[in-house]
């Protein structure tokens, strides 16, 4: 890819593929540690994730940087939707509201967020 040129946007299918492939590497790529061995493990995991994604993808080759950015954006969006859902639940007094969280939320957010989600929304994952 040449510098300054944009690739086409990720389709929903590509996003779901990334989430499925990332499940295998989530323990490594979401690790909060920043020591040398962990950073190296994260680099190796992102390279392996990118290779696996590109092998399974039917729409073209994506770079490690593109996949990393998409993964981070999906996590941000999931956290924001979770926060908005929590806020809406309190606004309605626990009554009915339309949650913005999606079915692939559990695979994006860390486990401690899922425990909070399960307790607050009584969702079984």
Automatic annotation (TrEMBL):
It comes from the Eukaryota. Residues 6-82 form the Myb/SANT-like DNA-binding domain. Keywords: Transcription, Transcription regulation. The keyword Oxidoreductase does not apply. This is Regulatory protein zeste. Self-associates forming complexes of several hundred monomers. Involved in transvection phenomena (= synapsis-dependent gene expression), where the synaptic pairing of chromosomes carrying genes with which zeste interacts influences the expression of these genes. Zeste binds to DNA and stimulates transcription from a nearby promoter. InterPro entries: Myb_DNA-bind_5. Pfam families: Myb_DNA-bind_5.
